From TrEMBL, chain A:
Name by which UniProt lists this protein: Cysteine desulfurase
Keyword Ribosomal protein: no
Top EC class for this record: transferase
Keyword 4Fe-4S applies: no
Named cofactor requirement(s): pyridoxal 5'-phosphate
Segments crossing the lipid bilayer: none
GO molecular function terms attached to this record: cysteine desulfurase activity; pyridoxal phosphate binding
TrEMBL record, chain B:
Species this chain originates from: Glycomyces luteolus
CDD domains on file: IscU_like (cd06664)
Top-rank lineage group of the source organism: Bacteria
UniProt cross-references to PANTHER family, sorted A to Z: IRON-SULFUR CLUSTER ASSEMBLY ENZYME NIFU HOMOLOG
A single GO BP: iron-sulfur cluster assembly
SUPFAM superfamilies, per the entry: SufE/NifU
GO terms of molecular function: iron ion binding; iron-sulfur cluster binding
Family as reported in the entry's similarity comment: Belongs to the NifU family.
The name this protein goes by in its record: SUF system NifU family Fe-S cluster assembly protein
Length: 422, 152
């Protein structure tokens, strides 16, 4: 059945102790990786080893532990940079999560508004435009919405077709010469759509706008090369890619980071400080005020190693096949309607659906009784829900450790939902 | 997990055949409540006359627990005195916060004791309380709008 998978899923599952858990008397079926992925022993072990052997603060001590910790932290940065095809590790800024990464970008524009000497690329005011899409996670909508409200710029967006794709026919119309920045989702967290990027990046160049991606759902699941994508910045988070919570990444081109004012200020991000004035360190330190998530960086590096070893092309191919199986099987369930693309092309293994007459909360509760973990609700994408006229959906999301058998269990359990609600 | 305990017949019945649903006139107080984690919503109106809850009308979208709870609430407080309704609100809230330790007093709470099982599921307690929260808020607004009732 799973011959098409290029991954040895049985061997992979053995690395994830939590997948052996039982919920009541049922085996856990974890289909909520789009919310957060599970972590392999390699990641937990790397963090434990670091904490037990080398724990110290970074970039300030001359002692052995301090230099080991600094080396581990900067090594993680280099590993992440290589993983996404970044020209230099100095272009990788560690943050708390994707949300903070995107806020860091948005605040570069907002802070530039107060600085007469700011780089014109970050100058935003009435008449200027910012573009997102209708399928954003709130993390890539609200920071831009707030920025526009505060600067007087106009927020515009690319709509969604009935099939759950970006309405690319409108790109030239939505992105005009007035546009200063476009930030759009690479893989949509509710719809599972993998967005083609070239048309938007080309248009961005035509109008001289900066362009970036919310890559939270793409970096964990498919090969991402920032140089190939031709974008100016991307944001993603550690915990969705087998790494720990508490660490995220902003990658941006070196010349942009150099031109951007800092977001958070304080320790570790300075060159010199007097009572009257401060000069800032170069990027990435300029954007990493305070003690950063050090053990988390070590964990993230171990996660990158794990993914690298499997090969992201293989991960993608496994999930593409899994997405096809999910769509096929779910389509057989009476009263189930898929919200998002119904074919496994340009699509991730994240499938949202409604179930006639049964609210997603109730679906999720009954699935939980069967040991199946899915996400229910609006998935922090209320405008997407509104676009499809629903308040909430049930979302099953697969990853490199999921099997056909688990999808079968989901489909069978949906029969149970029908039984309870008649 | 015992699903039958959560999805009791009486809850499913109120979910499928909600009592008192729909928005009606007249009313003195209206409240709109949302559950931001799941998107459930209710708009609820209260009509107060002669110290009584003369009508509770509502329009809601949501899961079985939140919809059934609003329906059960309607049966329990519609036509009672405001004081009695507030007592039921306090009693039901206490039941929902009991973490499965209380069965509820059927004499007083009637069908609402069916929600005792819900109190074991912290993620669902908010669903069960959404309608009651709307009632509480709408009542405050109603009392504020009635001249001479500044003690609210």
């Amino acid at each position: 059945m799973e011959a098409a998978s290029k991954l040895d899923v049985e061997a992979i599952r053995a690395d994830f102790p939590i997948l052996q858990r039982r919920i009541g008397d049922k085996p856990l079926t974890y289909l909520d990786s789009a919310a957060t992925s599970q972590k392999p022993v390699q990641v937990v072990e790397a963090m434990r080893h670091f904490t037990d052997h080398s724990n110290a603060n970074i970039s300030r001590s001359v002692h052995t532990l301090g230099s080991e910790a600094t080396e581990a932290y900067e090594g993680a940065r280099a590993k992440v940079a290589a993983f996404i095809g970044a020209p230099s590790p100095d272009e990788v800024v560690f943050t708390k999560n994707s949300t903070e990464s995107i806020n860091l970008m948005a605040y570069a524009f907002q802070n530039a508004a107060f600085d007469p000497a700011a780089d014109p690329r970050f100058k935003l005011g009435p008449g200027d435009e910012v573009v997102v899409t209708e399928m954003e996670h709130h993390a890539n909508l609200i920071p831009w919405q707030q920025l526009c409200q505060r600067t007087g710029a106009t927020l515009k967006w690319i709509g969604i077709t009935d099939a759950g794709r970006l309405d690319l026919d409108t790109v030239d119309e939505v992105i005009t010469e007035r546009c200063k920045v476009i930030s759009f989702v690479h893989v949509a967290n509710l719809l599972g759509t993998v967005n083609p990027t070239s048309q938007i990046t080309r248009r961005a160049r035509e109008v001289g706008a900066l362009v970036g991606l919310d890559a939270s759902q793409s970096v964990p699941h498919l090969p991402v090369d920032v140089t190939e994508l031709g974008v100016d910045f991307i944001a993603f988070t550690g915990h969705k890619m087998l790494g720990p919570t508490g660490i995220g990444v902003l990658w941006a081109k070196a010349d942009l980071l150099a031109a951007m004012p800092p977001f958070l200020t304080g320790g570790s991000m300075i060159k010199t400080v007097t009572m009257e004035h401060t000069t800032f360190a170069d990027a990435p330190a300029k954007f990493e005020a305070g003690t950063p998530p050090i053990a988390e960086a070590v964990g993230l590096a171990a996660a990158v190693d794990y993914l690298d070893k499997l090969g992201m092309a293989n991960v993608r191919s496994h999930e593409k096949e899994l997405a096809g199986y999910m769509l096929d099987r779910l389509e057989t369930v009476d009263g189930l309607e898929i919200i998002g693309p119904r074919v496994p092309i340009g699509r991730s293994a994240t499938v949202s659906f409604t179930f006639e007459g049964v609210h997603p909360h109730d679906v999720g509760q009954i699935l939980d009784a069967e040991g199946i973990a899915v996400r229910v609700g609006h998935h922090c994408a209320k405008p997407t829900c509104a676009r499809f006229g629903v308040n909430a959906t049930t979302r099953a999301s697969g990853y490199l450790y999921n099997t056909h058998e688990e999808i079968d269990r989901l489909v069978e359990a949906l029969g149970q939902v029908r039984k309870v609600f008649g | 997990m015992n699903l039958d305990e959560l999805y009791q017949e009486v809850i499913l019945d109120h979910y499928k055949r909600p009592r008192g649903a729909g928005l009606r006139e007249p009313y003195e107080g209206e409240s709109h409540q949302v559950n931001p984690t799941c998107g459930d919503e209710i708009t609820l109106r209260v009509h107060v006359a002669d110290g009584k809850v003369a009508d509770v009308s509502y329009d809601n979208v949501g899961c079985s627990i939140s919809k059934a709870s609003a329906s059960v609430m309607y049966e329990l407080i519609n036509g009672t005195t405001v004081d009695d309704a507030l007592a039921k609100l306090a009693e039901f809230t206490e039941l929902m916060n009991s973490k499965g330790q209380s069965e509820g007093d059927e004499e007083s709470l009637e069908d609402a004791v069916a929600f005792a099982g819900v109190s074991k599921y912290p993620m669902r307690v908010k669903c069960a309380l959404l309608g009651w929260k709307a009632f509480q808020d709408a009542l405050v607004r109603a009392e504020a709008s009635i001249p001479g009732r500044t003690d609210a």
